Amino acid sequence: MKIKITIEPTFSVKWPMLRVKINNMVVHDGICKPNESKFFIMQKDIIPNTRNIIEIQHYDKKGKETVTDEHGEVVSDRALILKSISLDGYAVPELILHDKEFEVHWTKEQIKEDHNRPSTIKNNLYFGYNGIYRLEFGNDGAKEYFHNLIEKERIANIHNKKEMIGPDGRRIEVFEFTGRLVDSNEEEAITIAQLYERIQGED
User: Fold this and answer.
1) Sheet holding 171-177: strands in order across?
2) Bigger pLDDT: 99 vs 72
């Protein structure tokens, strides 16, 4: 499986530090600076397991690299911005990337300033703090893509959930997926083949 990760590093005082692991194997550890236009792009071929994990870690930020002007506006920052991840050429939808948590590694000074800081941040692809972002995926890029489309649809409709009574009289929570009410408790409410046919028909 070919994995492609695109990151936009931002410079302040110096370039950020990046460590990338795939299934606990370090594939990059060091300075992250642009290698293609304004982006840092890395590609890696792996033999996938049934369950795989990409870890993107921002580290070595001391806390004084965020430069502000006299009005408190940020002029420059030492950070990583995750732009995209693709598996065998299939891009992981941005909504899916946003839905994953970033485990924050607060500095002692940051904890001293505020003891109630959260251990994780969600809906954020701007890694301005030290910490680790994780993405889990399967061993088939195409299958993962269609699973992600279903998950994207579920997340997008999370606020549009409805209730209906099933054939057995059970009250179930559903969401709308391309005009069809789908049981939100089902692990896979539509097959990959059905989803593929539906998408092909919409083109």
Assistant:
1) 162-165, 171-177, 180-183
2) 99
115-126, pLDDT tens digit by residue? 889 999 988 999
151 contact partners, CB below 8 Å, separation of at least 6: 96, 99
Cα separation, 88 vs 146, in Å, equals 13
Mean pLDDT of 99-111: 92
- Label each residue of the chain as H, E or C: CEEEEEEEEECECECCEEEEEECCEEEEEEECCCCECCEEEEEEECCCCCCEEEEEEEECCCCCCCEECCCCCEEECCEEEEEEEEECCEECCHHHHHHCCEEECCCHHHHHHCCCCCCEECCCCEECCCEEEEEEECCCHHHHHHHHHHHHHHHHCHHHCEEEECCCCCEEEEEEECCEEEECCCCCCCCHHHHHHHHHHHC
Closest C-alpha to 127, from 111, 95, 104, 96: 104
Q: Could you give the angle at the alpha carbon of 116 between the alpha carbons of 55 and 77, nearest 5°?
A: 55
pLDDT in tens, 164-180: 566 666 766 555 544 44
Class of 2-140 per CATH? mainly beta
Kindly state the tokens that stand for 131. 């910490």
